[in-house]
Every structure is written in structure tokens, then in C-alpha cells.
Amino acid sequence: MEPEFWDKNPFKATAKAFPxxxxxxxxxVLKTRTFYELILVDSNSVSIKHFKxxxxxxxxxxxxxxxxxxxxxxxxxxxxxxxxxxxVPFDPVGYTYWDYVDAWTxxxxxxxxxxxxxxxxxxxxxxxxxxxNWFLQWWDFFGPIPEIFPETVQQGFAQFERQYNSQESRIPxxxxxxxxxxxxxxxxxxxxxxxxxxxxxxxxxxxxxFVKWWTQFDSSKADPEQVKLWFQSHPEFLKAADPxxxxxxxxxxxxxxxxxxxTSNEVLAKNLKEVLQMLQQEEEGSSSxxxxxxxxxxxxxxxxxxxxxxxxxxxxx
Length: 317
Description:
Layout: H1 10-17, H2 33-42, E1 46-53, E2 56-67, H3 73-76, E3 84-85, E4 94-95, H4 97-106, E5 118-123, H5 134-142, H6 151-163, H7 173-180, E6 184-193, E7 205-213, H8 224-233, H9 243-260, H10 265-301, H11 303-306
Parallel strand pairs: 2-5
Antiparallel strand pairs: 1-2, 3-4, 5-6, 6-7
Region (Disordered): 280-317
């Protein structure tokens, strides 16, 4: 915070630095929050509604934003720097893909004169979303946290994590869970000054975000049973079976086929010989795994590995 902008009320301080209606550094005064809202609405990415105070029609008390889709670069066009025109008259007349990316953040930087405004954010039902990589950073800041989940949703999310093939997907489990079950949450923010130990230094101005659960949502739509049904309809997202279990079941089916096909003593003897060979191979494989496990245990006993946790949690700043 620079001395000429200082005020003990942070909202008054930003009013000295930013143009009217801005709560972010303007690259140009034409790119207002309304400009970024129009980008998301005109591209059919979101649906937004603003609600007024019945006693003061100039005051937005809260807003809702439904996420319909998030455009990936390939959906925008071959040139991300080439502007797309709005479908309605506006100045500026269009926007680039980089404006579109910025819109997902700057559209939320709205406050009313009482400094009390909140957003209800929710996904659309029966929609498969294809999120670009940059949207994952958006989710980290604007998305909900497990601490606010009601018990039913905590149980449903735990079930989802157990079944979701996170290793094969770049989309984190919580984002996939929320978008797949059209969950909602409330987001709000406030300005705050950071604490400083130096008395002769002005504190830095920070934006603090808050999230909470929307209690009117029917959380039974995302309970463990609904999660199981969802994976039955979307097996492509299901975690693969345990490899050792798959091998065992495969061998079991082979043994059953051998014994079922034994119509004579000669055939039975041949099949039993193959069974013994399979069991021997399995035993050798098991011995190999034991050797690997023993080697890993020796590594864990090494003083170097015993001390590696001592480095965790150290801040060099």
C-alpha cells in the first residue's frame, strides 16, 4: 500500500487507486466488470442473475452464476489473439481468448456499497464438462473446500474418490464430483490488510475469499448410492481393478476351463500338468515380489530415508 492511497478502510483505499466500479488493476477503463460478464454470457458459458434489495433497487445483495461450459482454446478458433464480436452492441466490440480467461476471475470482483455481496455458484445437471488446464487454478481459488461439505456429501465424495480413476484423469476428483452431480456453493470476498511487524511500513492489501455450503441444496442427490449409480452409467471414469486381483481371477478362470474340459484321464493328467506349471510360475513371481519388498525394506532402514521427513515443512522465506 502506497502512502497516498492509505486509508484504514481498505475499500476507500482502493477507490483512490482504481476507477469507479473497479476492484482490479485496469488494463483499460473500457474493460469493466460488465465487459467481462458479457463475455461469459455472450459465449453461452454461464447464466448470471443479480438480485436487488427490495428497499434499494440500486443495491445488488447477491448473484447467481450457473456454469454451462468452459471454452477450451481449440473451441475458440485457430488464433487466440483474434477478437470475437459480441452479438449485441458494446464497446469494446469483441474479445480475445485471453479476455475470456480473465473474465472467469474478474466477473466475480463485484461489491455493493455495503461491502456485503455473495455469489451462488453451481453446475448444470446432466452435463459433461471439458475443463481446460487453466480452469484448475480457478477451481483452487473459487471452488469449495471439504470442510464445508454436509455429512451426506462427505460420504458421497469419499465414495467417489474410492471409485474415480484419478491417475488417468487430469481433472481432480472434487471438481469432477461437483460438476457431475451439479453441486452448488456460496462464494464471497472481502478486502483485508495483511499484518506487518514493521511500524513504519504500510501493510499490503489482500483479497480474502470465503466459501460456505448452500443449505437449500438436496444433498441426497450426491450420496454414496447415487455415486455408485453414476459410475454404472459412466464406467470410463471408473478406477481399474487391482492388478493382483485381476491376475488371480484370470488364473481361476483358466483352471476352471482346464478341469471342465477334462473328459479322460489322459486329458486330465495333461491339464493338471499345466496347472502345476501355472502354480510354479505364480510361486516364482511371488518370490520375486518378496525380494523386491525386502529390498524396499532395506532402503527404508537406511538412515538417509529415515531422515527425509526432517526436510518437510521447512520454509526458506
